[in-house]
Amino acid sequence: MTSKETARPLRVLQLTDPHLMASADGALLGVNTRDSLNAVIAEVLASHGQPDLILATGDLAQDGSEEAYCALGESFTAFNCASAWIAGNHDKVPSLKEVAARYGANRRHLVQGGWQFILLDSSVPGKVHGELAESELGFLVQMLEQNPDVPTLVTLHHHPVDIDTDWMADIGLRNREEFWQLIDRFPQVKIVLWGHIHQTFEQQRNGVHLLATPSTCIQFTSGSRKFSVDDLAPGYRWFELQASGDFTTEVCRARSFEFELDQNSTGY
Ligand SMILES: Nc1ncnc2c1ncn2[C@@H]1O[C@@H]2COP(=O)(O)O[C@H]2[C@H]1O
Predict the structure, then answer these.
(1) What is the enclosing helix (H) or strand (E) of 71?
(2) Which has the closest alpha carbon to 200: 70, 27, 17?
(3) DSSP classification of residue 114
(4) 124 CA to centre of ligand 1 in angstroms
(5) Which of 2, 12, 28, 253 lies deepest, with the highest CB count within 10 Å?
(6) Are 151 and 190 in contact (CB under 8 A)?
(7) Cα separation of 46 and 120, whole Å?
(8) Which helix (H) or strand (E) holds 72?
(9) Domain-wise residue ranges, the chain
């Protein structure tokens, strides 16, 4: 292997909140969610090419159906790499895990390209908000203690900090203080990444980059007090991770996807 090859960054794709449904016609506020996911995937391949790893960060299905998870797996066959799927509030964990296992995507820990990826399940059956069970927090600590010198990305579905979108204040991660007390003990954590908020979010906290990403279907209006959807195109997040712990990231959108969003909706 040449020195140039060893310096190649790990290319990681985050796809989030696709809200797929059992029916191929399934739509959220007028947007066909399979079509929008496939438009995002086409944009990834045209703009960035093949990733080395895909993180699918929850609300993979709107209806928790096996058909929806199979549709996700089939869409991901456009990529040559592994993916890892986590649950959001709309998912049904048993079905998700069963189908994810068929696609080799039922993973909660990976070490690749000199980075560690820890995937946490913050879903609470029947609830919109998130919470990390003791078992998830224990797993997080165990992995961080076992890999003290490995730059780390931690991902979950729910937002673990306040965002400037008031109607979402009560539907983030409830036990976030416990989460941050743990993260604060481990300086190798470089990134905390989530979905759920259907919008771009980028901040820093104690040197940790806090990142969230548009949905592959509909978008919520940043800064809105009430439920509100924005007509921004579906999107994804791309990372280039160096083994040193340095990284770049950007959010991109499916530029040629045409859709008619029901902007008068007051919720779903
Ligand atoms: N008008 C609304 N007010 C509050 N919450 C809502 C409203 N409409 C939908 N929701 C919930 O808020 C969630 C935010 O993102 P989800 O896609 O998880 O699913 C959404 C619904 O469960």
Answers:
(1) helix 66-75
(2) 17
(3) T
(4) 15
(5) 12
(6) yes
(7) 30
(8) helix 66-75
(9) 10-253
Q: CA nearest 80: which of 23, 156, 11, 128?
A: 11
Computed from CA positions of residues 103, 111, 49, 61, in that sequence, does the dihedral angle turn out positive or negative?
A: positive
Closest approach atom of ligand 1 to CA 167:
4
Confidence of residue 6 (pLDDT cuts 50, 70, 90): low
Closest ligand 1 atom, CA of 62? 17
* Tens-place pLDDT, residues 32-59: 999 999 999 999 999 999 999 999 999 9
| CA separation for the pair 12, 50 (Å, rounded) | 9
Nearest-CA residue for atom 2 of ligand 1 = 267
> Tens of pLDDT along 177-197?
999 999 999 999 999 999 999
56 beta partners = 15, 85
Quote the ligand 1 centre to 161 CA distance (angstroms): 17
Confidence of residue 7 (pLDDT cuts 50, 70, 90): confident
Whether CATH 3.60.21.10 fits 10-253: yes
Pairing between β-strand 10-15 and β-strand 82-86 as defined by DSSP bridges: unpaired
Question: What are the residues facing 250 on neighbouring strands?
Answer: 238
Task: Supply the pLDDT for residue 167.
Answer: 97
Q: What is the mean pLDDT of residues 5-24?
A: 93
Long-range CB contacts (< 8 A, 24+ apart) of 139-147? 139/108, 139/109, 140/179, 140/182, 141/182, 143/109, 143/116, 143/118, 144/118, 144/182, 144/185, 144/186, 144/188, 144/189, 147/111, 147/116, 147/188
- What is the whole-number distance in angstroms between the Cα of residue 268 and the centre of ligand 1? 6
Q: What is the mean pLDDT of residues 89-111?
A: 98
ipTM of the complex: 0.96
> Residues lining ligand 1, CB < 6 A?
59, 89-90, 128, 167, 171, 196, 227, 266-268
